[in-house]
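Both lines are retained for reference:
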Amino acid sequence: MYYGEELVSYEELKRRIDEYIYWYNHERSKEKLAGLSPFEYRTQSGPPAA
């Protein structure tokens, strides 16, 4: 993910990984999920799963 980038500290690496995880789960859209992010897809209202 950060190949070739020089990071200053562990805290910087942790912050950037946390930002990536947030983006991955809350902001990116997936065609297979009707264009919603994984978080939006899981929290949308609809019939409960059996």
